[in-house]
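Study this chain:
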Amino acid sequence: MIVRKLAHICIHCPDLPAALDFYTRALGFKKVFNFTKEGKITGAFLEIAPQTYMELFDHAVAPATQLRLNHFALETDDIYAAQRHLHSHGVPTTEIKTGSDGTLQFWITDPADTAIEFHQYTPVSSQYTGQDVEMDWDW
């Protein structure tokens, strides 16, 4: 296999300071470094977990042809504790449910309205069993 793991995701943000606050304060990501252009901060590189990263860029400096992102998922070992933590920071969440793939999940959105799925694998998760999943949602 030529890919070892996901290196990073990139999100274009209409309000970079709000996004940085959300991801560092509410989600606890660590800012590793800033991107600058002519001395102005235009983005940041954040560590999500050991050697897993996210890039945030000010939407104003990104080409209009580049899409923001549909969603990304963060794995947790305790989905109930993750939800309590987010609520303690004023972040609303959906209810925890079992997805069609057998995982426990809930959803939040960031200040740019990017969807974020919190995901806890279970013994019957298709990611472990390889079982095909019948989609129970519409786009």
